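Subject: sequence -> structure tokens, single chain

Hey, anyone have a minute? Need the predicted structure for the following. Not urgent.
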Amino acid sequence: MLIKASRVTNLTDARYFAARGASYIGFNLEEGTEGYLDPIYMKAIKEWLEGPKIIGEFGTASPAVAAEAASFLGLDAVQINVGSHLGELGDLAGTETILRLDGQSGVHLISGIIESAAPFVSHFLLDFSGTENWTEILENNAAEWLDLFEQYSMFVHADFRPEHPGWLASAFGVAGISVTGGEEEKVGVKSFEELDAILDML
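Reply:
Had a minute. Here:
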């Protein structure tokens, strides 16, 4: 199962995720949003890493802006939200792209978006941030979700407990999970007990 680290803001997190075999390490590069990291610091952290692909995460930015940032900053991939830009995904041609979807939108709406976006997107990220009943959402339409997970490469982002990655793998064949970095207790010092409990189950 693939691991994507999202909204990383410090070298401690970045090196931890790289050591744990993360395929992607993401940095929020959209100014004015939660977890934003100045590209200067992103580039400094990037110099310390080997292995994971570096992904720039964008919220409301258009595909054209994300593609320009990828080229200028030397990113390996970008993550964008659906927003109103579905018809502009062609602007990301040649750039590895993860499309973030709101997991609460419903499987039928999401299915239609995925079908339209699939020619332009490498992976999809189903985001259940702040959704306590996300496992019920999947279970209530299990057949429809399973069909999507079997056809497309999809990450799930949620408030995981240690048993969740194994359940996602066995019940739905999910391609990967997305987990979030956090603040250091002080520079270079941080506890990873909760993340270890989750990632150790992969």
